[in-house]
Amino acid sequence: MTGKMLVGVHCVGKKNGERKEYFLYQPFDNQESMKRWGCQAVTAQTGFGAALALELIGRGIWKDAGVFSPEYFEPKPYLKLMEESGFRYEIKELPA
User: Fold this and answer.
1) Could you give the C-alpha distances from 56 to 3, 50, 75, in angstroms and in order?
2) Can you give the residue range of the structural domain that contains 83?
3) Where on the tree of life does the source sit, at the highest rank (predicted)?
4) Over the chain, what is the mean pLDDT?
5) Is-contact 57 49, C-beta < 8 A?
6) What string of DSSP letters covers 26-85?
7) Which candidate among 3, 33, 41, 53 keeps its CA 20 to 30 Å from the CA of 14?
């Protein structure tokens, strides 16, 4: 199977009273995903995000009582673990 995919999130908000706009995204090539991980790009993107979140919970980095989505927690440890795991992402600051 060949092809490419891109999954991203567009964020708009304020930082220090100034409007900010960012696009965080994960580009995937299906052939590269099959070679590196033995699964399709869509499978890697779906599963690895959850696996990284569980790793942070298991290490005690993400902790709180109750049920929360990954977006609830501080993102920097997640992004660092993505880099350490070779799970590529990019962040672009857009003109506000």
Assistant:
1) 31, 10, 11
2) 4-93
3) Bacteria
4) 92
5) no
6) EEEEHHHHHHHHSS-HHHHHHHHHHHHHHHHHHTTSS--SS---GGGS-SHHHHHHHHHT
7) 53
Task: Please check the confidence at residue 55 and state whether its pLDDT lies above 90.
Answer: yes
Q: Give the end-to-end CA distance of the chain in Å, rounded to a whole number.
A: 38
Two tokens at 77? 């440890």
Q: What is the total count of domains within the chain?
A: 1
CB neighbours of residue 94 within 10 Å: 11
Query: 8-18: per-residue pLDDT in tens?
Result: 999 999 999 99
Percent of the chain surpassing pLDDT 70 = 100
pTM, 2 dp: 0.79
CA distance 57 to 38: 26
Residue 55 token pair: 């790793």
Q: How far apart are CA 42 and CA 47, in angstroms?
A: 9
